[in-house]
Write a structure and sequence with these properties.
This protein is mainly β. The protein contains 1 helix and 8 strands; from the N terminus they run E-E-E-E-E-E-H-E-E. A hairpin with a 5-residue loop joins strand 7 and strand 8. The two termini are 35 Å apart. This is Elicitor-responsive protein 1. InterPro entries: C2_dom, C2_domain_sf.
Length: 151
């Protein structure tokens, strides 16, 4: 089993549907991977084309429990006096990236555009994200055993 760090580079989004009646949207992204969750900063007044340029890390195991190797990016609009609005989400499947990284030590998906879809599965813009995986090198020290004996 390979253990490593999955790093997500959240670059920008564009073409998001503006849900604010007055003023501009304040979008942020919730990134989820197998029960781990990270939240981006809020792009205040960025409207339908926000830019973040932020990095997030997740600890991953490959192969791990289950077969749900995907990143889910939920794009939300921060609201002050009401619940935040769901703008859409994108899904990035990373099983192949993890398999290559587990074998070679690291692997990378350069920043690419992924479709953002709303709850009704209609297209509503795109988000640009890059993903890398780096396997942790485990210390292989031997303690005791016949090699360390005096015989």
């Amino acid at each position: 089993m390979a253990v490593g760090i999955l790093e997500v580079l959240l670059v920008r989004a564009k073409g998001l549907e503006d849900t604010d009646f007055l003023g501009g949207m304040d979008p942020y992204v919730i990134i989820q991977y197998k029960g781990q969750e990270r939240k981006s900063s809020v792009a205040r007044g960025a409207g339908s084309s926000p830019s973040w340029n932020e990095r997030f890390t997740f600890t991953v195991e490959y192969p791990g429990s289950g077969d749900d190797y995907k990143l889910t990016l939920k794009i939300m609009d921060k609201d002050t006096f009401s619940a935040d609005d769901f703008l859409g989400q994108a899904t990035i499947y990373v099983e192949d990236l993890l398999a290559i990284g587990a074998e070679n030590g690291n692997a990378e998906l350069h920043p690419s555009k992924y479709s953002v879809v709303q709850a009704d599965l209609s297209y509503c813009g795109e988000i640009q994200v890059g993903v890398t995986f780096a396997r942790k090198v485990e210390d292989e020290e031997e303690y005791g055993g016949w090699k360390e004996s005096n015989f």
